[in-house]
Amino acid sequence: MGTRTRATDVMCRVTSDFELLSFEATEFTAEEAATKLNLPLNMLFKTLLVKGEKKGYVLAVVPSDHHLSLKKLADAIGDKRVEMAPIEELTRLTGYLKGGVSPLGTRRAMPVVLDFSAFQHARISLSAGQRGLQMLVAPSHLQQAAKAEVADISDDQS
């Protein structure tokens, strides 16, 4: 398989049916990854660290061409309100750098909520745990590996 990360190790416990794609990352954005890997932006999913008022930290996985809806996420996890976690907390809590955050293999275990739109694709692309490394995987395998709840948590950017 090539490159091993904590995220790929977790996925290997569920399936070996995934592909790793690498590129030279300079901007650390989904748009850069989509362009350099020649993938549609709606197939790339970003992982965002969010803090709930009662539930604590949660990882939200949404398509890169959408915005995370904090209201929808709060409803999905049964919390009154959620907010984006401060960027300073990202590496400490996940063990990953901005632009390389995966919902798999985080330093601290936390709930994962996967946007339902992932299931519109046979495979989605998400960070494999380091900048410039993406994992192509079936949404059902990601859901299983991350023990993710599936919900409508995003809004179109248009």
Notes on the protein architecture:
- Helix content is 25%, strand content 31%.
- By secondary structure, it is of the alpha+beta class.
- It is globular.
- 41% of the residues are buried.
Instruction: Give the overall form.
Output: globular
What is the number of helices? Answer: 5
How are the strands ordered across the major sheet? 5-2-3-6-9
- The CA-CA distance between the termini, in Å, is 38 Å
Q: How would you state the average pLDDT, rounded? A: 94
Rg, Å, rounded: 14 Å
Order of helices and strands: HEHEEEHEHEEEHEE
Q: Indicate the low-confidence ranges by residue numbers.
A: none
Number of DSSP-assigned strands: 10
Secondary-structure-derived class: alpha+beta
> How much of the residues is beta strand, in percent?
25-35%
The major pleated sheet works out as: 5 strands, mixed
Helix content: 10-25%
Q: What does the secondary structure layout of this molecule look like, with pairings?
A:
Layout: H1 6-12, E1 18-22, H2 30-37, E2 45-52, E3 56-63, E4 66-68, H3 70-77, E5 82-84, H4 87-94, E6 112-115, E7 124-130, E8 133-137, H5 139-146, E9 149-151, E10 154-156
In short:
Helices cover 25% and strands 31% of the residues.
Throw out a few tags for this protein:
single chain, 158 residues, alpha+beta, 5-stranded mixed sheet, 3-stranded antiparallel sheet, 10 strands, globular
